[in-house]
Amino acid sequence: MKRISLLLCLLVLLAPSTQAAPDGPGKGTAPAADAILVFSKTAGFRHKSIGAGKVALMKLGAENRFRVDTTEDASVFTAANLKQYKTVVFLSTTGDILNPEQQTAFEEYIRGGGGFLGIHAAADTEYDWPWYNKLVGAYFLSHPKQQNVDIIVWNQVDPTTSFLPSRWRRFDELYNYKSIQPGITVLATLDENSYEGGKNGPMHPFMWKHEFEGGRAYYTGGGHTDESYVEPLFVKHLLEALKWTMKRTK
Hints:
- This protein is of the alpha/beta class and 250 residues long.
- 26% of the residues lie in helices and 25% in strands.
- It has a domain at 31-139 and 206-246: Rossmann fold (3-Layer(aba) Sandwich), CATH 3.40.50.
- The protein has helices at residues 2-14, 50-64, 79-82, 100-111, 130-136, 232-246, and strands spanning 34-39, 66-71, 87-91, 115-119, 139-142, 147-153, 167-172, 176-178, 185-190, 204-212, 215-220.
- InterPro entries: Class_I_gatase-like, ThuA-like.
- This is ThuA domain-containing protein.
């Protein structure tokens, strides 16, 4: 009897574990009550850090019990499919990435209470879609060389920035913006005196959020570099931004 029990224990320990594939709609981290869609299609410049961003977001999902599906297939933007997601992340998307039917489905998703997180080049996306400009909050204008900058965190009460230093020194590619929307709540700005090439003045936005047409939208200007996605403060910033767009308190 003891020999049988020992054999069963060994079989359990040696049995191969299974894990969902990291890419594709419906495939991601372990099953959980909540799910997000990470969309990284590019029709312009492609950031090599997209891969690192996916890995970081998958890890956040595994650690915080939400499923992360990743795709570059715009055909998943249907009303029926988007309903399963608490938030859609545009991870350094660029250019014209959705057709008119897909745009309509995404608009309906947001109006139904869905969340949106735009990371870095999400602002360099869909210039001919005025609704998207309102959602993301601003469009990319230009950028100087990558360099260190002082980020001034104005709101240290908001859960997405409360853990950040009031003056946060970090390295990234720093966007200048155009078509900045009046309804956004700016949480942090770039100190243009601390780097070269800023063109938005003393209130140069870097992180912002707003309630929009029934949903929640958040944008962060960081995330150009691979290193951003292993930087503890930036990764925590992404997690808290996700939780806010998902309407999660934990």
